[in-house]
Amino acid sequence: MFEDIGNLFQGFSVALQPFNIGVMFLGIILGVIIGVLPGLGGANGVAILLPLTFSMSPTSAIIMLSCIYWGALFGGAITSILFNIPGEPWSVATTFDGHPMAQKGKAGEALTAAFTSSFVGALFAVIMITLVAPLVAKFALKFGPAEQFSVYFLAFCSFVGMSKEPPFKTVASMFIGFALAAVGLDTMTGQLRLTFGFEPLLGGFDFLIAVIGLFGIGEILLTIEEGLAFKGGKARINLKVVIQTWKELPKYWVTSLRSCLIGVWMGISPAGATPASFMSYGIAKRTSKTGHKFGTGEIEGVVAPETAAHAAGTAALLPMLALGVPGSPTAAVLLGGLLIWGLQPGPLLFVEQKEFVWGLIASMYLGNVVGLIVVLTCVPLFAAILRIPFSIIAPVILVICAIGAYTVHNSVFDVVMMLVFGVLGYILKKTNYPLAPLVLAIVLGDKAEENFRQSLLASQGGLSIFWSNGLVSTIMALGLIALFWPLIGAAWSRLRPAPASA
Fold it and tell me: Which of 215, 208, 217 is nearest to 43 (CA)?
């Protein structure tokens, strides 16, 4: 323990070198820009900018790349709150209450809450990495296909059972997402599914294309129908707003702590930041005293997903460093960078490259502080966009969405599909079907199916594998409890007054 503390202080001496501080600021700024642009994403941004680091030392290079990642995590909330367009997959849940807050003229409060919650979640995850790295690495080794499917099962069940939306509409929306996730080449058998002989569908529907269309284009169509007026109003952003928001945030410390734990668990497992944000939002909505107001602009609805997403995104780096198993797409890109520099991730990395490992961990602390300062300083710039007339900003958003969709695969077909998803999003919103379950199913549907089928192959078709050990049994049981939570709650409410009346 004391040795680790000494190593951490040595890491700070490395991270605080002037050149490394400079690449921190540069990485954060580039990451925020990447996070704001729909379609790029942290993994793509790190991959695109990886060549910039080849002339640097491995420590400086990984610090810059990790700070690009932190910046992308911060930046994803900006367009989610201001325009209802998630810059990143894990920012989808932030749109549910962040954008309504912006429409009420509380964009400053929403952005400040999002950035601060992001900082808290990432800081919690870095502390966990520092203190319990060996224990967490041993836990991550236990996750096979059955355990990973159980995590996805829990995420799906939580949305059905713990959402205030009508269960039928939630399930129907989720099934549409499962159908869309099934399109393309079956990785298990090599057969084509639901492509109808159309070659561009071989790779299926890209999640980012679907999100840009469902949220971005769908929102623009609704706004045009309602009178071509941007509802954000004027946002008063200053130091007073930031301080007032900070005074209000401690009221949600339980939500923050729970979201931190969910995020770290999901990041290590590795389910990822996206299901962590959805699950944290769903549980917060169910347990909060103001849960019935979620979706109308509750600050707690911003705190929960942002905290969990950043905790998960940061925690995903631990399996990559300790085991050589990336916990997220961005961690996979960073893993490739380590291999390029001749470093082999795994338990020996902590022994043979102490300066590198602890320099990286120290930079996580500093990078998050730098990221919070940068984004809070730029809040007035982001909020000033709300003052632009919607008749001007709508074409700009359309162009950005089209560019984002095109750059995913450099395909015009993706732009067309973005428009199709935009119409679908418009129809679902008009008929009051929730978009979140559909998005969740598109993101996790193929992964859940793959792990489910791998589990059945290992057990020769027996479902007992999902109850074969304490870990997977516990997660599956939690999923069933979440699924039937409305029935359990109703039964409990009927039974509670019985003893009193007796």
Answer: 208
Q: How far apart are CA 223 and CA 394, in angstroms?
A: 9
* 3 state DSSP class of 184: strand
Asked whether 415 and 404 are in contact (CB, 8 A), the reply is: no
CB 84 within 8 A of CB 397: no
Low-confidence ranges of the chain (pLDDT < 70): 1-7, 36-45, 47-48, 51, 54, 87-88, 133-142, 162-164, 208, 226-238, 269-272, 323-330, 332-333, 336, 344-352, 379-388, 390, 393, 489, 493, 496-502
Model-wide pTM > 0.70? no
Structure tokens at 339: 């291999």
C-alpha distance from residue 172 to each of 1, 212, 281, 417, 419 (Å) = 51, 21, 20, 21, 22
Closest CA to 235 of 226, 245, 223, 224: 245
pLDDT digits (tens, 9 = 90+) for 234-272: 445 567 778 888 888 888 889 899 999 988 888 776 566
Q: Which of 301, 296, 384 is nearest to 114 (CA)?
A: 301
Burial of 327 (0-12, 13-18, 19+ CB in 10 A): buried
What is d(CA 159, CA 440) in angstroms, rounded to the nearest whole number? 9
Query: Which helix (H) or strand (E) element contains residue 185?
Result: strand 184-185
Buried b (16+ CB within 10 A) or exposed e, 485-501: beeeeeeeeeeeeeeee
**3-class secondary-structure state, position 306:** helix
- Tell me the CA end-to-end span of the chain in Å, nearest whole number: 57
Give tens-digit pLDDT for 19-74.
888 888 888 888 877 776 655 556 666 766 776 776 778 778 888 888 887 787 77
Cα-based torsion angle of the residue sequence 376, 379, 380, 382 in order, rounded to the nearest 10 degrees: 160
Which DSSP helix (H) or strand (E) runs through 290?
none
For 190, counting Cβ atoms within 10 Å of its Cβ (0-12 exposed, 13-18 middle, 19+ buried), the class is exposed
Mark residue 237 as left, alpha or beta (left: phi above 0; alpha: psi -120 to 50; beta: remaining). beta
**Boundaries of every domain in the chain:** 2-490
Q: Which amino acid is at 325?
A: V
What whole-number distance in Å separates Cα of residue 255 and Cα of residue 250?
10
What sign has the CA pseudo-torsion 292, 293, 294, 296? Answer: positive
Kindly provide the residue ranges of all beta strands, DSSP E only, lying in 317-417, ordered along the sequence: none
Token pair listed for 121: 């979640």
Helix, strand or coil for residue 191?
A: coil
User: 113-141, pLDDT tens digit by residue?
Assistant: 888 898 898 889 888 877 776 565 556 55
Measured CA to CA, the distance from residue 130 to residue 327 in angstroms comes to 17
**DSSP conformational letter for 192:** E
